[in-house]
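Hi support team,

I've been running sequence recovery on a batch of backbones for a student project. Most finish fine, but this one hangs at about 90% for roughly twenty minutes before it completes. I'm not sure whether the input is malformed or the queue is just slow. I've pasted the structure tokens below so you can try to reproduce it. Let me know if you need the job ID as well.

Thanks,
M.K.
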């Protein structure tokens, strides 16, 4: 029995969709906070169970009979995220799972400038402290996050960012496919995976150049100070704490935290991962994507 948490979220739903191509639906359990939101999965034969990291008692039922539990990391920060992940890890252990998988990040490190990197490093330490085999899926930085962070600038033709470094932006779809593959191959990785990344790392200047190519119009890039960038984000309606959180990703990229490129994802997929050129072509609706 394979249990996938957050199964009606973007990543969890995509993982289950990939699993359904190779595994019988009755072998899959979708753990969600609100089962009514996963009625479509239930209609396809997937077992849908109520499971809420914030209510650990629900996880005993959600994880019952699990051979493997895939914990999709919570969309929370700080102590709250660590508490939620601890509850899920302990529940998977108590359920007798033979392996726990966790969706981590290539930039996980205890001294990260990027707060999610701190959370993932703490969760990996929790996994290592359990007496259960585990696999921490060190995902590349989501390509969708890049679009969220700089899409306005790319559309406007002027991308202003703080000083940055190369990032191996990787699509959620490719990562979901790889995660599903690893769930069906229990002995593939123990402990931390290599970085699961696309085939190249690019800077913000590179993104501007790629956007120019796929749209046929010039997109310029300018580097601004950290403070100026935060102020500009706030002026566009981004809450200041969120702007400072995002600034942490630029600071981490300067240090090279997201620059690694590894062939593991391509090997798992059996094809080259999607590139940022392809991602931008779709997002910016360029005629060149035809």
């Amino acid at each position: 029995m394979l249990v996938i948490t957050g199964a009606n979220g973007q990543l969890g739903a995509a993982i289950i969709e990939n699993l359904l191509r190779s595994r019988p639906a009755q072998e899959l359990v979708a753990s969600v906070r609100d089962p009514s939101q996963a009625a479509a999965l239930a209609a396809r034969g997937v077992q849908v169970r109520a499971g809420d990291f914030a209510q650990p008692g629900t996880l005993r039922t959600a994880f019952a009979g699990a051979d493997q539990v895939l914990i999709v990391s919570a969309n929370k920060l700080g102590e709250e995220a660590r508490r939620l992940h601890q509850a899920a890890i302990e529940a998977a252990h108590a359920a007798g799972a033979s392996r726990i998988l966790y969706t981590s990040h290539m930039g996980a490190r205890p001294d990260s400038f990027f707060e999610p990197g701190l959370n993932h490093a703490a969760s990996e330490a929790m996994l290592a402290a359990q007496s259960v085999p585990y696999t921490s899926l060190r995902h590349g930085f989501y390509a969708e996050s890049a679009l969220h962070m700089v899409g306005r600038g790319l559309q406007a033709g002027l991308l202003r960012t703080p000083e940055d470094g190369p990032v191996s932006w990787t699509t959620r779809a490719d990562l979901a496919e790889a995660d599903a593959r690893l769930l069906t191959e229990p002995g593939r990785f123990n402990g931390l995976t290599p970085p699961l990344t696309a085939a190249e790392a690019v800077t913000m200047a590179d993104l501007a150049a790629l956007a120019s190519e796929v749209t046929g119009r010039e997109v310029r890039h300018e580097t601004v100070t950290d403070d100026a960038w935060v102020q500009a984000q706030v002026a566009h309606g981004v809450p200041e704490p969120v702007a400072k959180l995002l600034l942490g990703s630029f600071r981490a990229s300067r240090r090279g935290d997201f620059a690694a490129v590894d062939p593991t994802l391509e090997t798992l997929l059996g094809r080259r991962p999607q590139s940022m050129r392809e991602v931008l072509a779709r997002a910016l609706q360029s005629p060149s994507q035809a």
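--
Follow-up from support: It reproduced on our side and the slowdown came from queue contention, not your input. The chain has two domains: 2-139, 147-151+158-166+199-260+274-289. No action needed from you.
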